[in-house]
Every structure is written in C-alpha cells, then in structure tokens.
Write a structure and sequence with these properties.
Length: 406
C-alpha cells in the first residue's frame, strides 16, 4: 500500500476502515479512516498512529516513503484515544522512536494506557518540537473532545494537524476533500459533530475565537478521520463548526416515536402534520427504523424535540429511553421539548419523557399529550392542535411567521 503525498514533506500513511459500522454507540454508515501523517524532516516524525488492527497497513505506507529500514525518530500523539494510539506499543517496539510528545494530559493518558512513561515528553500551548530543519508548534485543545486533545502546526509546510477536530467518519480512498462529493462530506461532518463534539460546543466557539490570534498561516488541515482540507475548501470546516456550535434556533422539529400497536404512531404522524401546518419543517423518526445517531445528526438542524412512546411496565418504551439517554448526554442547546404517548391503564410514559427533556434543559411546550387506547378522530384532531402549538412556538422562537428555508 502506498502513502499519499500531502505537501512536499508530509505524507498520509493512515488506514481505511471500510467495514466500520459503529463507533461507541454512533452508527458509522460509511466507515472511517484512521489518519496518520509522516513528516520527512531531519528527524522523521509520525503524527498519531492508527487503530491497533490496522498497524500493518500503516507500516506498508510508511515503507513506501522511507524504505524497508523503517525507523521513526519522533512520534507526536495529538490524541490518546485508541483509534489513534492503539498501535502505539507495537510502533514503539518496531519503529523505535526516540521521543513521544503529547500534551500534559496526553502524557497521563498514554502512560495510563500503555505504561511508557520514560519515552514521553509534554508540550503545552506555545511550546515547540524541533524536527531539526522543521518545527512543530503545539496548541492544546482540551475537551475537543478529550482532556488530552491538541493540535500541532508545521510552519514550514503550513500544515495544521487537528486530530479529531474538523474530521468525519467517512471511508474514502480520495484523501483530499476537494476530490470527494461535497454533499456526502457535509452529511458526515454534521453526523460527526452532532455525535462526538456537540457537548463541547462552548469550547469549539472559544477555539474559533482564539485561533486567529495565534497567527498561524494554515494552508492544509489534516484531521485524524476523513479527508484533508486544502484549496477552495480550506475554510469550510471552520465555517461549519461555527454554525454547528452556535446552535441557533431554526424552524425545524424532530418527531421521534416508538409504538406498540400503532396508536402512538398515529399520534406522531398527526402531530407532525400539525407542525407542518403551522409553517415549520418537520422530520419524523420511527425508532424501529432509525438509530440514535441518525436522530442526533438531524437534531443539529432542529430546535424542537418531540418524543412519543406508549407506556409499558409503567415506563416508556426501551428504544425511546435509549435515544433520549443518548441525546441527553450530547447536551443540545436552544431546544423546545414536547412529549406524547398512548396508554392502556396507567400512562406514565409522557411524564418520563418530560423528565428527560427537562434534564436536557429543553423548554417544554406543555405538560404533553396522552391518549388512552386507540385514538379516535377527535383525538387525532387534538394531536394536530398539539403540533400546531409546537410549530407556532418554534416560529416565535425563530422570529418567523412563515416557513423558514434552511
């Protein structure tokens, strides 16, 4: 397998995981890449490694650049998570780096993972790593998305290595963003941000504010997953991150539901139609056909979360609880919330959903809507009224009186 030249002295030597379908609870429909980068400086330097099973693929790409007598002088770990550091013990044994650099928190994480303390050297924001004829500068980016996360910048090649920042889970053999389908990349970047970085949006906005003051002349951005950004698309990831992180009110609602005997389903469809009648956009998710990460990705472009479930064993349906637990952990901002559900004799699901929405700091539209057994025509009209109320409140939040165009 061959390395891919990024700049005169930087090569992509990572691996492509075409088969990856799940990443700690996040469905990866299009696989991923584990990006590692080789710098041909006086001291040959490797930026990050790969997930452990892909070590050999990385070695082959490194050998395609520097030959069979493979040796790396310096290894830089921008992020200690196992999809970037899993191959590190073997790399230490096989490539024999003299030093491994990481952020102060990265040092702690790597040593805790692998017990390699004597090789580790910490670098903080503003400090540099000499590669002989080139220099890497460190920028700590704590909680984007781990405490150890950092960027490194190679001034001589104007390359920013951004670890999980500005990346996406997208398996492609076209390593440059400009060579890939823009709509696919936008979808996967939204999905990645929503499922990985959304809880850290305040840190993202702070980074975007501070980064220009560092006066780095960046011409190429190399993330640890997905394509490399340069040329006409260089600034796109920064623009998208700003929009994602701000989470401003938009006139779109997400209606998610699970159903036992289709009564809650009927409610969901009529509520969604009421939202549409009010003039807001709406997307409906049946949870027997959608994953939690699908919902999270769509929620990035929505400002109302409407959740429905029948009552079973005095609680909500398990799939509804699963998705709401996942979304609560992502901490979306600026959300309206509403709950609905059918029931036979007790009807606790609506109150249970409201508790989740309250934990998410969503602004509840009402106490929710409960209908016993199979909804009649009058009940379905109540559902549409409920949807119209949600849609009207959403448009009010967006300062609109008619459908918005996203």
């Amino acid at each position: 397998m061959q390395a891919i030249k990024i700049t005169d002295h930087v090569y992509w030597v990572g691996a492509i995981d075409w088969a990856l379908k799940e990443f700690h609870g996040y469905t990866t429909h299009r696989g991923s890449t584990y990006n590692a980068f080789l710098i041909l400086a006086d001291k040959i330097t490797l930026i990050d490694t790969v997930k452990a099973p892909f070590k050999q693929e990385m070695y082959e790409r490194i050998r395609s650049v520097i030959g069979d007598e493979t040796k790396v002088d310096i290894l830089v770990s921008n992020h200690a998570e196992m999809d970037h550091s899993g191959a590190l013990p073997e790399v230490i044994r096989d490539l024999k780096p003299e030093k491994i650099y990481a952020s102060p928190m990265g040092i702690k994480a790597l040593d805790a993972h692998f017990g390699i303390g004597s090789l580790l050297t910490a670098v903080k924001t503003g400090e540099s790593i000499s590669l002989g004829n080139m220099t890497l500068s460190a920028v700590e980016t704590r909680m984007l998305h781990w405490p150890d996360s950092m960027f490194t910048y190679l001034a001589e090649e104007k390359v920013l290595f951004s670890q999980d920042g500005f990346g996406m889970h997208f398996a492609t053999d076209k390593i440059f963003a400009v060579d890939n389908d823009w709509h696919v990349m936008l979808e996967e970047m939204k999905r990645y941000y929503a499922n990985i970085l959304l809880p850290y949006s305040p840190q993202v906005l702070n980074l975007l504010k501070v980064f220009p003051t560092l006066n780095l002349d960046v011409q190429t951005i190399c993330p640890d997953h997905g394509p490399v950004w340069n040329g006409e698309l260089l600034l796109k990831p920064l623009e998208l991150y700003k929009a994602f992180a701000e989470q401003q009110y938009v006139p779109r609602a997400i209606v998610l539901y699970d159903t036992m005997w289709h009564s809650t389903e009927k409610m969901a469809l009529h509520i969604a139609d009421g939202i549409r009648q009010a003039g807001a956009d709406v997307r409906v998710f049946a949870l027997d056909a959608a994953t939690r990460s699908d919902v999270a990705a769509e929620l990035l472009d929505a400002s109302a979360l409407v959740a429905g479930s029948p009552t079973i064993n005095n609680d909500m349906y398990p799939r509804t609880a699963d998705v709401l637990t996942y979304l609560r952990g992502l901490r979306p901002k600026n959300m309206l919330g509403a709950a609905f559900g059918s029931y036979g004799w007790s009807g606790e699901s609506v109150a249970k959903i409201n508790a989740y929405l309250t934990d998410m700091k969503a602004e509840l539209v009402s106490d929710g809507l409960k209908i016993q057994y199979v909804p009649k025509d009058a009940d379905l009209e109540k559902c549409e009224d409920f949807g119209r109320e949600i849609g009207a409140r959403l448009l009010e939040k967006c300062h609109l009186t008619q459908p918005g165009k996203l």
